[in-house]
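Appendix B. Chain record.
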Amino acid sequence: MTSTISNIDVAIIIGYFLLVLTIGFIIARKTKTGEDLFLGGRTFGWGIIGLSLFASNISSSTIIGLSGAAYSTGIATSVYEWMSGIPLIIAATIFVPLYLRAKVTTIPEFLEKRFDRRSQLFFSGITIFSTIMIETAGGLYAGTLVLQAFFPKLVMWQTAMALAFIAGIYTAFGGLKAVVYTDAIQALILIIGCGILTWILLGKVDFDLAKVIAAAPAEHFSVVRPMDDESLPWLGLLVGVPFLGFWYWSTNQYIVQRVLGGRDIRHARWGVIFAGFLKIIPLFIMVIPGAIALTVYPNIENGDSVFPFLVTNVLPVGLVGLVLAGLVSAIMSSVDSALNSSSTLMVIDFIKPNRPNMSNEEMVKYGRISTIVFMILAALWAPQIANFSGLWDYLQQMFSIIVPPIVVIFLVGVFYKRGNGPGAFWTLILGTLIGVLLFILGENGMWPLHFTVNVGFMILVCSIIFIVVSQLTPAPSKEQIELLTYRKGLVMDGMEGYPWYQDYRLWMVILFGLIMYILGVLW
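Structure tokens predicted for this chain:
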């Protein structure tokens, strides 16, 4: 059976765009203050938070990449998805109450309260740059490539600009609430569309995964790989992946912003744990289809072509449009989240401190202007990535440079109460410089460690810098320690008086047990 992109499929995609713009327009009419624009008025419940976290994290390149890797090299890289529950557990237990009690709008703002303004500005600047030039532009570029696989006549720069324009408009005027509500719809479309594709593929192997596993190459279904494995060596799985996950889920404004918009600590924690359960789903609806395709369609030459091939050759008319709407959803949810978080950082961390008497109207105005400017920059840069394919591969590893010092000042800084401003600042500066040096050495064959292993090594180096500099400089003030570091009772903060089945710790244990079970099965 061969499906083409019919008029019905195109109509479904257009209908999706219209729905998103309509939601953004409706919410924009109710967006009056800076808190409305940046945090949705702090009104989000746990379900919306969880769905939005899931949708913002899943990009079109993630869907294509997971299926392609499962087809070509195996399922090892899928651990970035289903093991996300572990850093999400850490976030729910420790960092959600710390952030919400501190009443911050941005994560760098937390650094100012815990350490000093220097760390805030450095972290915020790096986050804005990486979010716009890597996350947003990369999402537009990858998303355009995906759409070109289905619609070959699309022009790169025009498509990137159109996607940026649509996401930018409803984000600029509807703010985080528009982002979160459209994300929730996008998550549901993505799960339903990919779920249907998986079900149809399972039918082609008589719902017998054992047949698929038996036909696959040795170690194809194992996540523990040799040290010389190019995708994910076993040591990187242990010392790199957990810290990369912690950075992404606990310190990344792009992700954490919807948690900061939670109506209270209870809903924020539930939403984070809910997202942990949702992150297990890609293993079954994105990874498994790629593995099944290896048995059913063994002659696909390019791994990146696996998912587009499955959509157009397995699904009937109408369902193709639904899955394509899911792909478009993934593009939009990544772009809108990145734009909203970057504009929030710009206004709260850079503009507002220099204009302390800024009114709500001015805050909204600057937020919308920032979103539009970032939208244009990302759309202009996205097509240029095609001219620097090698560089773009390197940029994917740039996170191994910026992540270690950030992880240390947050994770160590919360437990090590002697940690201070100079310690945090010099950890960021020196840790980043050493990371750049090792990156350059690695690209020239003079540093042998895989980038995930390098993350673990740099965590150790940055921890030493943080502790030594903090010990040699004045201790932090009492205010910087009391509510901004780990304390007895933090785990149950905001959860008192609720029945056992509403205790997030119960669901946290269930989530952790499920992840460990999957790890054992795929070991």
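Further analysis of this model is presented in Appendix C.
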